Amino acid sequence: MKEAEAGLIVSSRDLRKVGAHPDHWYPICWSRELKPGQMLARRFAGDPVVVVRSKEGVLFALEDRCAHRQVPLSHGVVKGCTVRCGYHGWAYDESGACVDVPYLGRERLPNGVKSYPVHEVDGLIFIFPGNPELADAHRPASLGAKGDRTYKTRELNREVGAHYTFMHENLFDMNHQFLHRRQMGLMKATCLGRDSGPNWAEVRYTFSRTEGAATIGEGAILGLMRGKDEADRKDKMVIRTDYPHQNLRFWIDEGDPVLSVWLGYTPLDAEQRTNRTFGYLSVKKPGLPLLLDLAWPFITMFTESIFKEDKEIVEMEQAAHDAQGGDWNNEVFPPIRELRAVLERCGAPA
Questions:
Q1: CA 20 to chain centre
Q2: 3-state secondary structure 121-183
Q3: Which residues have C-beta within 8 Å of that of residue 272, sequence separation ≥ 6?
Q4: Partners of 299 in the beta sheet?
Q5: E strands of 230-350, at which residues?
Q6: N or C: which end of the chain has fewer CB within 10 A?
Q7: Rounded to 5 degrees, what angle do the CA atoms 116, 120, 126 make?
Q8: What does the pLDDT look like over 115-139, one tens digit per residue?
Q9: What is the rounded distance in angstroms from the CA atom of residue 41 to the CA atom of residue 25?
Q10: Which of 157, 261, 283 has the alpha carbon at shortest distance from 217?
Q11: To the nearest 10°, the Cα dihedral for 213, 217, 221, 223?
């Protein structure tokens, strides 16, 4: 059936084929995963990347492919601030230059491999896949409330079989609360307003429960920070995409948000139909921080259940896109339309 006959609104450009723009910082691994003297094999949009930390603590990232026989450098060894290929021992320094071929000497060195600007902040390691001259201008200084000791934080870490734009839309659109009815009862999200700019979009919500009751996990996040009944609460949620990252903050009263979430989506395959989601979920500590520690297992179970449902639904969206051969989304919610415009404007062809 043709799209017009089906009554669908189809964009002239398929958003699910808009690549993540390389001129930004993307999380590639957790700091705790990379020990001194070791390296990790990772991917960005189909490109193999090896992230290295020398025993002296020098951090660098290279194309994970030896210029000689193309085997992964990550199968070699770290020696000081160089990586030696495990096949013939060709050595590359942190800039990607080939600095030694054991059987040729240093007088006849071949070309090296690509290097990536690398940045470590708040327990995450980022690479900059694009123009290195632009790297410093976009360097992230902090990730949500991770560095704020008045919050307790947990990692969000999963591989999702969906294009990164589905992830932005899923978080941005709180009208999908019906999906989480088993975790939260039925919640009504009311949009308070929206704004957008050349590379950002923001939406604001308030919430009311129309059916059911809060679970232990939800109550643990919100109940520890308030002395009011739910009916007297003044909920406010602000979700913002600052391309290519996203954050969510939730207030129940004036003052600091009780919940802060930071998210980064790193495309894995060349077609960018999978991503690794890195993030931090931070909950404001109450007057007695021990109460939050005791509630933490319930908060973890609650948030993992929510994220599991979101993961499953965006993977269904990706499967529908693949089966249909295009982006048939008939979007009617104005904030999502503005978000999609930002993602299309800021992205790059896949």
A1: 12
A2: ECCEEEECCCCHHHCHHHCCCCCCCCCCCCEEEEEEEEEECCCHHHHHHHHHCHHHHHHHHHH
A3: 19, 20, 45, 163, 164, 350
A4: none
A5: 236-242, 245-251, 259-267, 275-284, 348-349
A6: N
A7: 45
A8: 999 999 999 999 999 999 999 988 9
A9: 18
A10: 283
A11: 50
Instruction: Give CA–CA dist 185/170, Å, rounded.
Output: 19
Residues 6+ apart with CB under 8 A from 53: 34, 35, 36, 37, 38, 39, 59, 78
Place of tokens 């060195």: 109
Q: Which of these, 71, 70, 38, 41, lies nearest to 56 by C-alpha position?
A: 38
Q: Which residues contact 151 (CB under 8 A, 6 or more apart)?
A: 145, 260, 282, 283, 284, 285
| Strand spans (E) along the chain | 18-19, 26-30, 38-44, 47-53, 59-63, 77-79, 82-84, 91-93, 98-100, 115-116, 118-121, 124-127, 151-160, 186-197, 200-211, 236-242, 245-251, 259-267, 275-284, 348-349
Burial of 201 (0-12, 13-18, 19+ CB in 10 A): buried
- Can you read off the two tokens belonging to residue 188? 């009504």
123's torsion region: left (phi>0), alpha (psi -120 to 50) or beta?
left
Q: Is 88 helix (H, G, I), strand (E, B) or coil?
A: coil
Which residues share a beta bridge with 267? 275
pLDDT in tens, 176-232: 989 998 888 788 999 999 999 999 999 999 988 877 666 666 766 666 544 445 555
User: Tokens standing for 299?
Assistant: 């908060």
Name the amino acid, one letter, at 191. Answer: C
C-alpha–C-alpha distance, residues 36 and 51, integer Å: 11
User: pLDDT tens, 261-303?
Assistant: 999 999 999 999 999 999 999 999 988 889 899 999 999 999 9
Is residue 43 helix, strand or coil?
A: strand
Instruction: Tally the residues of the chain.
Output: 350
